[in-house]
Design goal:
The structure is a homodimer of 456-residue chains. The first copy, chain A, has 13 helices and 18 strands. The first copy, chain A, has 456 residues and is of the alpha+beta class. The first copy, chain A, has two domains: 284 residues, Aminopeptidase, CATH 3.40.630; 134 residues, Alpha-Beta Plaits. In chain A, the strands form five sheets. A six-stranded mixed beta sheet of chain A has the order 1-2-6-3-7-17, sandwiched between helices. Chain A has a four-stranded antiparallel beta sheet with strand order 11-13-9-14, covered by helices on one side. In chain A, helix 11 crosses helix 13. The relative contact order of chain A is 0.18. Strand 11 of chain A pairs antiparallel with strand 11 of chain B.
Chain lengths: 456, 456
């Protein structure tokens, strides 16, 4: 294992340079104009897998963006680790807030700034470099498979079909995902859960054309005002979500679990200061970590309607829109919540407007039991390289495909993420600390080692 | 007067062609990229004035867009009519809803479709053609001055200074404005009032950067949600405006006035059908015509925040914005209401966000007394050319500069508008009926005639 470390130390600058090149590809899955960039990025991943020692590296077409599959089968008697990651990234908007181009990676203060730096190019790429390390040193504790998709940021619409149709190809013992954060390098942690997601878009139509707000104002329902009223009604005065049935299936955390969560280092004052807000906000009766970890939420992701340009226009618009997503916890069903949301918005449509709600994408919540072999292997790996036992925490984000993996492949998932909450995922100036990148590459082979040990 | 009519009949096709050429100039005052178009349009107006027989036609620079002044002084003993109009137009957005280019005038079914066709190029241009008519026929009942500005659609920020500094130049007996609508060619009407306006923009800032809605969602106030709550609180369940003090200075119309208003032909079912809405909306206790004429209103003109592109993005945005305007009735003060609005939005800012409200522009309400000489001249002119007496109505729109005119120049304003409510002002597919254009050109010299008669 010392050999792994020496190899990595000798090559780490090249590893970083390779990541920088990968980050230059604007693989934005949500935007159709990036279709060719998506393909270019898939091909780059394929090449990296081959160069790192994979026996097989293939691109599978889908009705959307391609999936990259790779494998290094050492010995059929060894356990197999399936690495899942995604090469697509969020749109970089708002572009004007980036200090440097989102696809022109910049290194400053030990961090690499670029869209996808942490989510998820910088993280899945650590696994390719871990493969290279084990390949170069000739020591493979496990077989390895890679499933790197291009549609995670748009809800993985084609991955389920691929998984269902390729069960033999994907056959493994555990799924390892690096697409989450840890508390810090000093306080390592492991996400034991990800939230589910329901994402809808609401369209409110008032008059059949934009109107002069002086001539018609006051006599016709304004779709922006009506949309605002609907949004405002989604949270009550305690910031509970008011949609009927929304909390019905939520598994409440026990007092013991909540007490354990409260042990994780957290300072609301620091948290607020980092975000530049004078006060935090959230559901009454829950702490910040609980609000982002064990409670479902409803957030407005976008809103638009009427005149949004420079200056002023006295228009009473025909339409207004909102993008709205909820994060779900065990045992909520994304499908059921999406139906509830759509039904709710259509049913509360004020007189004088027509409301149409449609589904964007969704995903189920997922939990890794801390008494599982999979969790313990990750715990030992992190302890080995960080020098301290990681804290189990509940992550706020979503990896829509997790529940399906467990269902179709019958195996457990472990989240071994090396990002930080401050990495500006989905925001301008996304970054990944270079030390975290290197620490991840160092830790991954240990996971393979301990997982093989524990499986014996 | 028969001579006027013959001249107009002989030249009406050229009049229309000239209007079409004027409509080709994209004179959008709100957009800085149209600065050169604005100047080109001012020059075109200047040339038209000269060609129509004006003794003087000048362009006055302002810190914003230029003002065109023209005059035909026939005899100092005659009364002087000052025509006010504006050559600037509203932005054409949303462009995609236009059936033909907003600046590529199209004639269909007796209507001319283009941005500015009715508001106000098509209307002020009638006065230039009326000047030409009187000039060609050598019969001028009054002197004529023209004040055609380029900033009406953005609140006339530089006109007040111009008026204050040029009182001698603008000295007149009456101001005649064609920038309003009539009920129909069959039911002519005269607007006896325009509403005032207060227009503000609200900026809501939550966290100091866009955040991942999974990682932070539920723990930080979402600026879109907070903005929606503020907007939703602006109207109560009876659609009264809830801003404290908003109605304080409203002069309530008498039962007699309301009874007279109710005589104007109006059908709510037809009105709703034309707009494509199942139900109308508005302040409880008032009819549609009252809601748009004698009552103040608050409308959302635009809203935006977060991700508004294709697909989905799970962002909790840093900022959200709204453009909000109110229409005011006598005796409300635009300045006072703007202050109330700004103060209100800043004071109701929910914890966790910062709200900044700024003024866009405003204007005072204005009323023309129906027993005034000015109104009577317009009434007689319309009766002469339409064959029936016009109905006095209260218009919903605003002409911000009216109150200032009266204050600075000490003269009355009369609104002789030839548009229709269905002209799609400020909306896609703005149009002006060619018959209305011709009828306006025919009627205007009659106004000069009757005004001179009544002034004797």
């Amino acid at each position: 294992m010392e050999q792994w470390k020496s190899y990595q130390k000798a090559h780490q600058e090249r590893f970083l340079q390779e990541l920088i090149d990968l980050l230059r590809i604007p693989s934005v899955s949500a935007r159709s104009e990036h279709k060719n960039d998506m393909l270019a990025c898939a091909k780059a991943v394929q090449t990296h897998l081959t160069n790192a020692g994979a026996d097989k590296a293939e691109i599978f077409e889908t009705p959307g963006h391609p999936i990259v599959f790779g494998e290094k089968m050492v010995d059929a008697s060894l356990p197999t680790v399936l690495v899942y990651g995604h090469y697509d990234v969020q749109p970089p908007d708002p572009i004007e807030l980036w200090k440097s181009g989102p696809f022109e990676p910049r290194i400053e203060d030990g961090k690499i700034f670029a869209r996808g730096a942490c989510d998820d190019k910088g993280q899945f790429f650590m696994h390719i470099k871990a493969l290279e390390t084990m390949h170069a040193c000739g020591t493979f504790p496990c077989n390895i498979k890679f499933l790197i998709e291009g549609e995670e940021e748009v809800g993985s619409p084609n991955l389920a079909t691929f998984v269902k149709n390729n069960q033999a190809l994907l056959k493994s013992d555990v799924i390892l995902i690096s697409d989450t954060a840890m508390l810090s390098l000093e306080t390592p942690s492991i996400d034991i859960g990800v939230r589910g997601l329901s994402y809808i878009e609401v369209e409110v139509t008032g008059p059949n054309r934009d109107l002069h707000s002086g001539v018609y104002g006051g006599a016709v329902a304004n779709p922006i005002t009506m949309l605002a009223k609907m949004i405002a009604s989604c949270h009550d005065e305690n910031n509970h979500i008011t949609i009927p049935g929304f909390y019905d299936d939520v598994v409440e955390s026990s007092a013991a679990e909540r007490a354990k969560m409260a042990e994780a280092p957290h300072d609301d004052t620091e948290y607020a200061k980092d975000l530049g807000v004078k006060a935090l906000w959230g559901e009454k009766g829950y702490s910040t970590n609980e609000r982002t970890g064990i409670r479902p939420t409803l957030e407005l992701n976008g809103i638009w309607g009427g005149y949004i340009g420079e200056g002023s226009k006295t228009v009473l618009p025909s339409k207004a829109y909102a993008k709205i997503s909820t994060r779900l916890v065990p045992n909520q069903s994304s499908k059921k919540i999406t139906e509830l949301l759509i039904q709710h918005f259509e049913s509360i449509a004020p007189e004088g407007v027509i409301v149409k709600a449609t589904e964007h994408h969704g995903g189920e919540p997922y939990m890794t039991p801390i008494d599982s072999l999979e969790y313990q292997a990750a715990e030992k790996a992190i302890e080995a390289t960080f020098g301290k036992k990681p804290i189990p925490v509940r992550g706020g984000g979503s990896i829509p495909i997790c529940a399906l993996f467990e269902q179709e492949l019958g195996i457990k998932i472990v989240f071994m993420g090396f990002g930080l909450d401050s990495d500006n995922l989905h925001s301008p100036n996304e970054k990944y600390d270079i030390q975290n990148f290197y620490k991840g590459i160092e830790t991954i082979p240990y996971f393979h080692h301990f997982y093989a040990e524990l499986k014996k």
